[in-house]
Design goal:
By secondary structure, this protein is α/β, with parallel strands linked by helices. It has four domains: about 110 residues, Tetrapyrrole methylase, N-terminal domain (Cobalt-precorrin-4 Transmethylase, domain 1, 3-Layer(aba) Sandwich); about 130 residues, Tetrapyrrole methylase, C-terminal domain (Methyltransferase, Cobalt-precorrin-4 Transmethylase, Domain 2); about 120 residues, 3-Layer(aba) Sandwich (Rossmann fold); about 120 residues, Rossmann fold (3-Layer(aba) Sandwich), CATH 3.40.50.10090. The chain is about 35% helix and about 20% strand. Helix 3 crosses helix 4 and helix 17 crosses helix 18.
């Protein structure tokens, strides 16, 4: 019998730490009941039509767990497939056991899918091994996170303090005082190494290291102490040698990604691999043209062209998806030579299994014309130029001046995105909470300026690092009075990210 409810561990924070099994269950859900701590990008992996409910806000605290239990059961009885997405792992220091027992009593079939336990992740992402030869034979997990008014956990503190080995406790900053005082007063050495890890596995992670006697004051002196993980034991000394997560070149930097949601994931992933916190605020969304007849006709007659010039990844996707949509395979594009302008455009063709016939090093119009002319005269050559709905195109004009017969056809539209997301972005830029802003095309620069205004855009970006891909984006920024600090001459996101790394290092 297929389970009606999946109790899924979301892991410690990073959205890619969910298990494969957990992700499959999430993607089958019609309702997602999630904790407030679950990463928004993980929630986005659920089906678009699935109902999403933040159960951290469904009821007052006193009745919260009962309300959650009944809500899960109610949704399951409605015939829904329920993903109960829980921060951490369901059966470790969480109420997953309570929810599972309630479902059992209600006769509702469920499945528990564990995840990377947050206590284990906290030490791993801080560069602290929980066990090491000679560092003790035990690892103790202590429940320490309680509401601020609760008492110290009622356990045998003398036995715990003298057990040795490694102790890990999830605790609030205030409860930390009680836990540490209890340990020391019952015999745990004050000079024993300790660490407090906040926000493990995400770019906002912060780790405070001190002795057990000093860890409370060190955490309280932190700018914004939040609940975290106390690690006590000699293994904490390994952090200086084994820290890897917060040693990455862009760690702690908040980088704005203005690309459309369809194109953003690759850049977001590379930024996060290098330690940055990627803030997605797309200024564009890619839409089909209002009149699809011209591009449909061009795709149907591809064999009649000598060249197809792809100047963007969106143009590649727009053309090739239509080729495949019309019950054809990629043999339908046999005939014309294919030119990719920019490494990113060439890479998008490669993803479709196509190697472009021409991939010029010089992406300027003059360089492109030289490269095309070296392959044969352009006089009388039929050229398909699939582009966006942006007005004007000097490339088409120059091709025609060289004698080519150019069909400049709208293959997609780039619509400006506005709304609350950009109001929040405006505040963050004003408050200087963003370290860098990336523009991957001239179109994204112009859309940003359209959203925020010409004068305001220059002011907003005057105190942050601006990074662009390719000369066109840099020129568009200059036209808007926006200073560019990292201007890559190539067209790849790798160059953009490495440019940011070099800038911040220097």
């Amino acid at each position: 019998m297929r389970p009606k409810v999946f109790l899924i561990g979301a892991g410690p924070g990073a959205p890619d730490l969910i298990s494969v099994r957990g992700l499959r269950a999430l993607q089958s859900a019609t309702v997602v009941l999630h904790d407030s701590r679950v990463h928004p990008r993980l929630l986005a992996m659920a089906p678009p039509q699935a109902e999403r409910i933040d159960v951290g806000r469904v009821a007052p605290e006193v009745f919260e767990q009962d309300a959650i239990n009944f809500l899960i059961a109610e949704k399951a009885r409605e015939g829904q497939t329920v993903a109960r997405l829980k921060w951490g792992s369901p059966f470790l220091f969480d109420r997953g056991g309570v929810e599972a027992l309630f479902l059992h009593e209600q006769g509702i079939v469920f499945e528990v899918i564990p995840a990377v336990p947050s206590l284990v992740a906290a030490s791993s992402f801080a560069g602290i091994p929980l066990t090491y030869p000679g560092a003790g034979d035990t690892v103790t997990f202590l429940r320490g996170y309680e509401s601020e008014g609760r008492q110290t956990p009622g356990i045998d503190w003398t036995s715990l303090a003298n057990l040795g080995g490694t102790l890990v406790s999830f605790t609030s900053p205030r409860q930390l005082q009680r836990v540490v005082t209890s340990l020391i007063s019952h015999g745990r050495p004050e000079d024993e190494p300790a660490a407090f890890v906040m926000g493990p596995s995400v770019p906002a992670q912060q780790t405070v290291v001190a002795t057990l006697g000093d860890i409370v004051s060190a955490v309280q002196g932190h700018e914004k102490p939040v609940p975290g993980f106390l690690v006590v034991g000699t293994v904490v000394r390994f952090r200086d040698h084994l820290r890897w997560f917060d040693n990455r070149p862009l760690f702690g930097k908040r980088v704005l990604v203005t690309r459309s949601r369809e194109q953003a994931p690759e850049l977001v992933e590379l930024l996060e691999l290098n330690g940055a916190e990627a803030i997605e605020a797309p200024v564009l969304r890619i839409l089909a043209p209002l009149d699809e007849a011209p591009i449909e006709q061009a795709v149907a007659n591809l064999r009649s062209y000598d060249w197809v010039l792809f100047t963007s990844t969106n143009a590649v996707a727009a053309v090739l998806r239509r080729v495949l949509r019309e019950s054809r395979d990629l043999r339908a594009i046999a005939g014309p030579s294919l030119c990719a302008v920019g490494p990113g455009t060439a890479e998008r063709l490669h993803r479709f299994g196509i190697v472009p016939d021409l991939d010029p090093d010089d992406h300027r119009i003059s360089g492109l014309l030289r490269a095309l002319s070296a392959r044969g005269s352009l006089k009388g050559a039929r050229v398909l130029l699939p582009v966006s709905d942006a007005p004007g195109d000097s490339l088409a004009d120059e091709l025609r001046a060289a004698g080519a017969l150019v069909d400049r056809i709208e293959a997609y539209r780039a619509a400006t995105v506005e709304g609350d997301l950009h109001l929040d972005l405006y505040r963050q830029l004003l408050e200087r909470r963003i370290d860098a802003v990336t523009f991957t095309s001239a179109t994204t620069v112009r859309a940003f300026v359209e959203i925020h205004g010409a004068d305001q855009s220059a002011d907003l970006l005057s105190s942050t690092v601006v990074a662009t891909i390719g000369p066109a984006a840099a020129d568009a920024a200059a036209e808007a009075g926006i200073p560019v600090h990292v201007a890559t001459t190539g067209g790849t996101i790798d160059e953009l990210v490495y440019g940011l790394i070099h800038h911040f290092r220097s």
